[in-house]
Amino acid sequence: MAVAGGGHGHFHSHDHQVKGGSEPQLSRYRVVAIVLELGIIVHSVVIGLSLGASNNTCTIKGLVAALCFHQMFEGMGLGGCILQAEFKFMKKVVLVFFFSATTPFGIALGMAISKCTKKTVQVH
Hints:
Blueprint: H1 23-53, H2 57-85, H3 89-123
């Protein structure tokens, strides 16, 4: 005896959850990553300013050593947060660019301010 209509069916599940967990959790990860990025950017500019404006060789050596270790650990922490937040590729690129560029920008700004200050002092 044959059964009309075949005897098999298909079931499709469309699970729209994100890889890392629920949508609210992913939003939290993204907020944490952005806040951490902003804090590190401000911190990096300030450290760069102090390094760029410094004239004392002993101070510069100490700041460079501290900066290297500090940036390494900040980068590892921020990188983990960025991966956990599951940003799209371009957003990751932008975040990495700002992390990488703010300290050199701060150093250049500190050197420029220091140079302008020296010229002003010499004129008066």
